[in-house]
Amino acid sequence: MDQGVPRDAATRLRDLGYDCTHVGEIGRSKAADDEILAWALEKKGIVVTLDADFHMILAVSGASGPSVVRLRMQGLGAQEVVGQVHEVLVRFGADLKRGSLVTVKANKTTCHKLPIGGSD
User: Is the dihedral of CA 90, 33, 3, 17 positive or negative?
Assistant: First the structure.
């Protein structure tokens, strides 16, 4: 989970059985976005963020991973983040394992497979 996401959400997701790490827990709270992406790719993880830059970096680079979930709802508390992330993992789990960009808005969630512009 990226810095803007409540740190407590990682703890709550772990309580639900998810392997989840907040960047602040591993001393990367000031890491650049590309460093976080590289770490997630190495760990075969998914980045959860409020930041549009992660989607842009992956789209422009033509990368096929890691997957990124962008929450486009400001002011979410830890419990709301947990609910949104859990819903995304249930709904798009297979896509996220293959490499996807998921955008969560209040009334709509979209999923685009990586690499952007690649064939399905």
Answer: positive
State the amino acid at position 11 in one-letter form. T
- What's the farthest any 2 CA atoms get from each other in the chain? 38
Within 8 A by CB and 6+ apart from 21, the residues are: 1, 10, 45
Q: Is 62 helix (H, G, I), strand (E, B) or coil?
A: coil
CA distances from 36 to 26, 28, 32, 63, 69 (A): 11, 8, 7, 14, 13
Residue pair 116/100 in contact (Cβ under 8 Å)? The answer is no
Q: Where are the domains of the chain?
A: 7-113
46-49 β-sheet, strand order:
46-49, 67-71, 100-104, 109-113
Going by C-beta distance under 8 Å and a sequence separation of 6 or more, which residues neighbour residue 61? none
Contact 28, 35 (CB under 8 A): yes
Mean pLDDT, residues 54-61:
96
> Whole-prediction pTM value?
0.95
